[in-house]
Specification:
Helix content is about 55%, strand content about 5%. The protein has about 160 residues and is mainly α. Helix 1 crosses helix 4.
């Protein structure tokens, strides 16, 4: 599944903010960690704010803070804020779709979409934070450490 940039930025931001919900992070800090545009991220953060998932803190030392429920908020919830992953019946008809082969293929592709939806709706932000912690323990890259300077952690193995 390929996600739009705004969706990926939202996922990065939420996971970053939810990792330490008491701490405030500026859009610039988050953008730098992931090598993304501050302007684009700021728009995404405003959308997340309107959805009640982040709180903007104004003034000196301000920034954004996670205000959602990490145990209840799922990846699907976040993705649906930024894109429609449902395929409408009859949308994007291709040559051959009306044939038995096309209908069989359509059924398989629809099943794949259902599985993806079910998986995304079963993974919470809290679960993702556990998976991220596990990756860090295995020696994966840590964007927070990268922003602070060279990492002393072993490089992730190639071909993952």
């Amino acid at each position: 599944m390929r996600l739009q940039k705004a969706t990926r930025f939202a996922l990065y931001a939420i996971l970053d903010l939810a990792s330490d919900p008491e701490k405030q992070f500026s859009a610039a800090e988050i953008a730098e960690r992931y090598g993304i545009s501050v302007n684009h991220l700021s728009k995404v953060l405003r959308s997340l704010g309107r959805a009640g998932l982040v709180e903007a803190v104004r003034g000196a030392g301000g920034g954004y803070r996670f205000s959602g429920n990490a145990k209840r908020l799922t990846l699907l919830d976040l993705i649906l804020l930024f894109e429609d992953i449902d395929s409408a019946p009859g949308a994007g008809r291709e040559p051959g779709d009306a044939t038995p082969e096309g209908q069989a293929l359509g059924g398989v592709l629809e099943e794949i979409e259902d599985i993806a939806r079910a998986t995304l709706s079963s993974i919470s932000v809290a679960t993702m934070l556990k998976l991220i912690a596990e990756e860090r323990r295995k020696g994966g890259t840590d964007p927070r450490a990268a922003a602070d300077g060279p990492s002393t952690a072993p490089a992730a193995s190639a071909g993952r």
